[in-house]
Write a structure and sequence with these properties.
It is a single chain. By secondary structure, the chain is of the alpha/beta class. The protein has a single domain, classed as Glutaredoxin (3-Layer(aba) Sandwich), CATH 3.40.30.10. α2 crosses α5.
């Protein structure tokens, strides 16, 4: 009986592990940025105030300096294989939009040492990362799985996307959702 249960549990566990790091249940992968759902983000005046000021590299993040700017929050976990695969795209787009849009990584669900190793291994050192060790930021933005993105426009409007976007769609979404058209 125990062997039979174990044979059943292993495939179930594999499916759960594979989907826990994926796009969630939204089926939103590959959708155009115009289809991004409205985020359950906090009130406009406090959207960025929920971010920790302690960064992975030991510097301080001044969230007040981000007010009125386009900001992309990238929610990831150090053990997430999809996050690891999309990291080069995030780095590329963050570099392309430097000076226009600020990218901030919000790693969670792991130890800071694992988060630092992920950053070093994946080449996303050009992005500021603020560890969300207690899950407060993820909860504030309604993030329940990774990878996920929250696009905050200069006027404070926020939209979210759960799943991996790829470089082209991430670039389009970041430009569309975060750059002030004025």
């Amino acid at each position: 009986m125990a062997t039979r249960l174990l044979r059943l549990a292993i495939p179930v566990a594999a499916v759960l592990l594979a989907t826990a790091c994926g796009a969630g249940g939204s089926g939103s992968e590959g959708r155009a940025s115009a289809d991004l759902p409205v985020s359950p983000a906090p009130a406009a005046e406090s959207r960025l105030a929920v971010l920790p000021t302690h960064t992975l590299d030991g510097t301080r993040l001044d969230t007040a300096a981000l007010d009125g700017q386009g900001v992309v929050l990238w929610f990831w976990a150090p053990w997430c294989t999809i996050c690891r695969a999309e990291a080069p795209d995030v780095a590329k787009v963050a570099d392309q939009l430097a000076g226009e849009v600020t990218f901030v990584g919000v790693p969670g669900l792991g130890a800071e040492s694992e988060m630092r190793a992920f950053v070093a291994d994946t080449g996303v050192q050009g992005v500021t990362h603020v560890p969300d060790l207690d899950g407060e930021v993820w909860r504030a933005y309604g993030i329940v799985s990774q990878p996920a993105f929250v696009f905050i426009s200069p006027d404070g409007t926020a939209t979210s996307f759960t799943g991996s976007l790829g470089a082209d769609k991430l670039l389009e979404a970041a430009r569309t959702m975060t750059v002030d058209p004025a």
